[in-house]
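Re-run with default settings, no changes from the original entry. Doing this only to confirm the output is reproducible before filing.
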Amino acid sequence: MERQIRRLGVALMVLFVIAFAQVNYLQVFAADRIADDPANAQRQLIAEYKVDRGSILAADGTTVLASSRKSPGDLRFQRRYPHGELYAHETGFYSFVFGRTELEQAFNDFLAGDAPELLQQTLTDLILGRPKQGATIVTTLVPEIQEAAAAAAAAEAGDVAIAAIDPATGDVLALVSEPTYDPNLLASQDPKVVRDSWEVLNEDPDKPLLSRASDELFPPGSTFKLVTASAALENGFGPDSLWPNPNELDLPLTDATIENFGGSTCSGGSQITLADALRQSCNVVFGEVGLELGADALAEQAREYGFTAEPGEDLVPFDIPWTSGVFPAPETFAEREPAVAISAIGQQDVAANPLQMALVAAAIGNGGVEMQPRLVTEARDPTGQVIAEFAPQEFSQPLSAANAAALTQMMVGVVESGTGTAAQIPGVTVAGKTGTAQHGEGANPHAWFVSFAPAEAPEVAVAVIVLDGGSLSSEATGGQLAAPIARAVLEAALGV
């Protein structure tokens, strides 16, 4: 009897070892081969499209930006985007050929029903024999502001990108980029439609699949003077500090010079204040400020605002796909001192996008505290219960409260009597900064405007770029082109 039990035990042990080895072989050694098997890939795809994928909603909790509908055939559900191009760069697309992008990818675990918070719901769906259901995510996007921004951008002949955020929370209220695309074409279940659309979009030199508001980088021009002014304030140079005001700035170690816009001399005499230099956007003075502060101080200030040393370098795990601005590492200026002065006015190797510059403005308006950009506030299960919340997160404090207040007043001067008067709104105090950024030999300048309002208690910060001079070509300035667009977005956000 003992011998039989012993044999049975040995047999069971052998079977266990065989099963253990088989499982490990399948999951470790053969995993890649099995996953790459076309037959399995097709089965996985069919299984993925059996999920009733969760919706993406606007901030009001009712406006649907993306949803799933039943579809005939093996792919049981199809993704739909009711507003077409309007929110394409925020939702991204969900394609059975080309995968997922933007929020569809960043929050895929919730949308596909794979998040741990949905385990109970998934088990219930399995027991009841109904399709697996994903969670709904609620974004921070406000339809009225998004629509106003899109309309303002469409009214300008050139390509425009706009970002609007809430300074107190970092909530992204609107992101608009031209050109854009219709994600419904990529979500089609007709392979030819999907591939043809993909080919057209990728062959377009204007790169409509990329958001110029958050994905691409451009020289920020004089809007970067907000960062340089912040560094000056933080290093003891107040709004009333006096700076030489020549017609041009001779750069050290070179025959090159910096001139003001149009080659003019800023008004005010042989010396002017830092505040007046910002109001008039004096390149010469801010070049002097950059040389006085040095590369270390400028780079440190830029890092506090979220600029990285290299494109694509991550500072913090934001919940949205975003390319932060770039300000080179200080050591790269060691043998090129003139580059410090040029970088201080937002040229040379400095780069940003509207979302980055809206964060700069928002930090100034928020008492010197910069919040992380937030695009999703919560996730809800299929019954409507909130299963996850994403609270506002502080990123940094680039400025003291006192210096933020001082810089706010300097920006108010820009709009009241400086280069940004086109952004004035009756009854509302607007703080802003213009920018006209050179890029490439013979290319028309990019026109920028960065702002927030009301200046005394900001509810919204807006950054606008009009690419390649827009409708004004080589004569474009931020004050002429971008400021009126920003004003329209500010008015929509404030209900003016």
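The two ends are 93 Å apart (CA to CA). The longest strand covers residues 446-453.
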